[in-house]
Amino acid sequence: MSTTGFVVVALAIFFASCMQATIGFGMGMLAAPIVAIVDPSLVPGTLIMLAILVSTLVLAREGGSLDLSGASWALAGRIPGTIAGALLLVLLPERGLALMLAAVVLFGIALTSFGWIPLPRRRNLVVAGAASGLLGTATSIGGPPMALIWQRNTGAELRSTMSAFFLVGSIMSLGALAVAGAIDRHTALLFVVLAPATILGYILSRYVNRVMDRRRLRLTAITVSTIGAVVLIGQQLMAL
Questions:
Q1: Are 182 and 89 in contact (CB under 8 A)?
Q2: pLDDT in tens, 101-152
Q3: Which of 157, 175, 202, 223 could anchor a disulfide with 65, C-beta 3.0 to 4.6 Å?
């Protein structure tokens, strides 16, 4: 990876970590399309490791607001979804994975933009957890299904519940990827190198939570994610 490429990736991780620590999701949705353009080998392994780090930091800060029951039902669905996602990652070629990643981002943006609000009942939580497990393991983007089901929650409750779900769920995904042979030395090394960007993004979120409302940050995230997904699709089509 060139110096310019590393700076681009580090900035994407920095802002994505800030967004996840502020609204409860966004690490994969914002960073994955940009990171996949610079270094596809970092998706999903390194991004999932970084998501574990930021989720741990948020949960340590706001764990007292956790909706334990809701997170538990969602995690019950995450288990089969994680297995399916690991199998999908093994079967898909790199180009197919990149196009799927971009499609997931655009689909997630569409769902979260149209205002559909499913009720957080047990069945819906399990289904959303399964979808998040599949997408999160295969592409590192597991946020949209959970953001959709928990969008009535706000503030610390949203952030802590999402963080608890993603912490446990991401550990599941990382284990499944390790079994599938999708984690290597390069993946772990880049996690160590990019961890400071994640920590700085988390620190920034403490100030963003005070001065920037959730709607504005969400609109910013949607705009950047859309641009990244469209550029990624264009890159893959040009390579055909």
A1: yes
A2: 788 778 877 876 776 667 888 999 998 899 889 888 888 888 878 877 887 7
A3: 157
